[in-house]
Amino acid sequence: MTGKIILNVVYNLAIFAFGLCLVWGIKHTNYLVVATFAAAIALIVYFKLRLIKQVKEYARSKKK
Questions:
Q1: What is the pLDDT of residues 18-44, one digit of tens each?
Q2: Burial class of 27 by CB neighbour count within 10 A (0 to 12, 13 to 18, 19+)
Q3: Whole-number Å distance between alpha carbons of 30 and 13
Q4: Residue 23 sits in which domain range?
Q5: Residue 32: helix, strand or coil by DSSP?
Q6: Long-range own/partner contacts, residues 20-24 (CB < 8 A, 24 or more apart)
Q7: What is the DSSP letter of 55?
């Protein structure tokens, strides 16, 4: 469970850092960077949602 918490923190930091890179790409009109980081953010959000689902299932099974 501790590993999943650490992974969640890493996902949050990655989303923040990639968001900053996304803003940088927009300011400098470098749309290849924008597209790359937008795809990376979408992928990390997908992984984060899967992690949340796993944690919820683990918590439910722990209650029973």
A1: 999 999 999 999 999 999 999 999 999
A2: exposed
A3: 23
A4: 2-63
A5: helix
A6: none
A7: H
